[in-house]
Design a protein that fits this description.
By secondary structure, this protein is mostly helical. The chain has one domain. 80% of the residues lie in helices and 0% in strands.
């Protein structure tokens, strides 16, 4: 995507981040997410990317302008897949960050 297109659609980095997080969560929590994940070239990579986004979201969740939206998005993951799934994704993403 050309950089001017990004600037035309997102006023701030936070807006871009929230849009990316929202889309990743929507895709993971949709009724066809298991089918999409199973058909992905590498399902483990898809889950690791989601985990990395969630890890970043948790890291900035105390930012007042982001707090409520991030809480709602994380709640969506918990309601769709359960708390253990969320914790496993974030744990694996944190472990990958420590090994890189």
């Amino acid at each position: 995507m050309p950089q001017p297109h990004v600037y035309a659609n997102f006023a701030k980095k936070q807006d871009l981040f929230l849009a990316a997080l929202e889309r990743a969560i929507r895709d993971a929590c949709s009724s066809s997410s298991e089918v999409a994940l199973a058909s992905a070239p590498d399902p483990a990579v898809a889950e690791m990317r989601l985990g990395a986004l969630l890890l970043q979201a948790i890291a900035v969740s105390n930012e007042p302008t982001l707090r409520l939206e991030i809480q709602d998005l994380v709640r969506t993951v918990i309601e769709s897949h359960g708390r253990k799934y969320l914790l496993d994704l974030v744990r694996d993403a944190a472990a990958a960050q420590l090994h890189d």
